[in-house]
Amino acid sequence: MQETRARILGALDEGPTTGPALAEDLDVSRAAVWKHVEALREAGFAIESGPEGYVLEGVPAYGGPAVEYGLEAPFDVEYHDAIDSTNRRARELAADGAADVVVLADEQTGGRGRLDREWASPSGGVWASLVLRPDLPTSRVPVLTLAAAVAVTTAAREAGVDARIKWPNDVLVRGTSDDAKLAGVLTEMEGEADRVSWVVVGVGANVNVDARALPPGATSVAEQVGVVDRRRFVQRLLAAFDGYRDDPEATLSAWRDHAATLGQRVRVETPAATVEGEAVDVELPGTLVVETAAGRRRVAAGDCEHLRPAE
Ligand code: BT5
User: Fold this and answer.
1) Distance between CA 80 and CA 43 in Å, rounded?
2) Which of 84, 85, 119 is the best mutation target for the ligand 1 pocket, counting ligand atoms within 8 Å of the beta carbon and taking the most?
3) DSSP 3-state assignment of 81?
4) Which residues, 6 or more positions from 242, have their beta carbon under 8 angstroms from its beta carbon?
5) Contact in structure between 19 and 53 (CB atoms under 8 Å)
6) Is the pLDDT reported for residue 311 higher than 70?
7) Fewer CB within 10 Å: N-end or C-end of the chain?
8) How confident is the model at residue 237 (pLDDT cuts 50, 70, 90)?
9) For ligand 1, which residues put their CB under 6 angstroms from it?
10) Shortest-distance atom of ligand 1 to CA 303
11) Across the strands, what pairs with 184?
């Protein structure tokens, strides 16, 4: 958020303040204060003028300034009511040199999953792409995907959903007959082997979405527990991600805590082979360890299916 506007909101958090007092504190003209207050009102902040000065009476439900307000993570938010794909836009910003920007949309018209699969993104979801410039070799980047899965799981669990992680990047809710997918992560990057130039971590979470607008096998927070505060959901997601992104060991440990895959019989389709057995661990940077009939196998990437144990 524009810095003076952020500081005005910060001052109003403390209580009513007059225009002249704000002007003096922020070292800008009274006319500038008035202009910024008008801009905040246009962005949906209910700023009333009372006898003691300006009072903050309400925060917009969603959008860029709403998510930035009170956000406990150093991200700027670029918000779109509708866009083709937040990952596509984030790649564009990354190529222009951006860092720590989140592209957020209410709706995507061309959302993508891995391998260019379609990602249904109706209005009401959380479709967010984080532009990052981590000081990492490309081989370590998968841990950021794990951190994003942990972060979205954390936000969903705080919203009251019993969300768990399926290796490597799915967040699901266990059903009586089948698991239902709540969220997914798509990470893209550019760089040389020894150092990444940028990473885009795209998170798609079905939050306040009618499950009938989603493909079969998908669920939403709304379906599980009812409509939640989407602004708070995104803020928790971003703060949790920020807490994990520089701490691979903590990421791994949180991932294990929330894992649905560990201890399961799995079938993993990799580009080279099919690996079947019991998933016993996950190792840095995001490798799944599978105990197979022929011994331990380590899988770096692939599609993972949870198999039902034989009756
Ligand atoms: C993923 O792919 O799970 C990664 C999804 C990442 C989406 C985010 S949204 C913000 C950002 N911008 C983008 O354009 N993308 C990212 P994958 O594991 O390949 O799963 C894709 C499969 O999940 C599809 O083939 C469908 O079967 C299913 N699917 C599609 N839309 C879904 C939804 N909304 N919820 C649950 N499952 C869905």
Assistant:
1) 13
2) 119
3) strand
4) 72, 73, 74, 75
5) yes
6) no
7) C
8) very high
9) 85-87, 108, 111-115, 117-121, 127-129, 169-170, 181, 184-186, 202-204, 206, 214-215, 218
10) 18
11) 170, 204
Q: Does position 87 have pLDDT exceeding 70, yes or no?
A: yes
* Predicted local distance difference test score (pLDDT) of residue 2: 85
For atom 35 of ligand 1, the residue with the nearest CA is: 218
Q: Whose C-alpha lies nearest to ligand 1, atom 2?
A: 113
Say if residue 310's pLDDT is above 80. no
Q: Which atom of ligand 1 is nearest the CA belonging to 85?
A: 14
Which strand (E) or helix (H) includes residue 195? strand 195-205
* Average pLDDT over every residue of 234-244: 98
- What whole-number distance in Å separates Cα of residue 182 and Cα of residue 238? 17
Give residue 105 CA to ligand 1 midpoint distance, Å: 15
pLDDT tens column, 154-197 = 999 999 999 999 998 899 999 877 899 999 999 999 998 888 99
pTM for the model stands at 0.95
Pairing of strands 274-283, 287-292: antiparallel
Cα dihedral sign, 245-251-254-259? positive
Question: How many Å lie between the centroid of ligand 1 and the Cα of residue 215?
Answer: 10
Shortest-distance atom of ligand 1 to CA 218: 36
Beta-carbon contacts of 290 under 8 Å, excluding residues fewer than 6 positions away, are 266, 268, 275, 276, 277, 278, 279, 280, 296, 297, 298, 299
Residue nearest to atom 3 of ligand 1 (CA): 184
Nearest C-alpha neighbor of 143 from the set 154, 134, 155: 134
State the distance from the centre of ligand 1 to the C-alpha of 203, rounded, in angstroms.
9
Is residue 262 within 8 Å of residue 176, measured between CB atoms? no
Name the closest-CA residue to atom 27, ligand 1: 215
Q: State how far the Cα of 183 lies from the Cα of 165, in Å rounded to an integer.
A: 9
